[in-house]
Amino acid sequence: MTLEQVGAGNWRACLALEVDESQRRIVAPVAYYLALCAYGESPWGPLAVRDGAEVVGFVMWGIDPEDESFWIGGLLIDRRHQRRGCGRSVVAQLLERAAAEGHREAGLSYDQQNTVARSLYASMGFVETGELADDEIVARKQLK
């Protein structure tokens, strides 16, 4: 898995990503996340997830201006590539990046009904904080 900036050569492939039918209620479309990156108040940066030559997913990252924590958001893997470790690989790469840049903490949020995300993030050391961000559960992980 490789991560690359979303730009002229891959944005259409990102827009074409589809989640499983069961996830459509709890995962926003890539177009929504790209709008957040372009127009939102938060400093999100969009990344395409590649497996070889194919774009198989999308994720955003950003730095919280209040506490300098590294945030991961909008992670989705195309339905045809799920259950292959792609999401885990993306999160691991972003955590390595955050630690290398000197961030002490990583944060993310997910829909309360997204049990797949909850399980993945817990298995990677994220701990739910009791906070909510736009009605989503916030989880954080201390970085060493």
TrEMBL record:
One Gene Ontology MF term: acyltransferase activity, transferring groups other than amino-acyl groups
One Pfam family, short name: Acetyltransf_1
Record key words, sorted: Acyltransferase, Transferase
SUPFAM superfamilies: Acyl-CoA N-acyltransferases (Nat)
Keyword Membrane tagged: no
N-acetyltransferase domain boundaries: 1-144
PROSITE patterns in alphabetical order: GNAT (PS51186)
Name of the molecule in the record: Diamine N-acetyltransferase
Organism name: Friedmanniella luteola
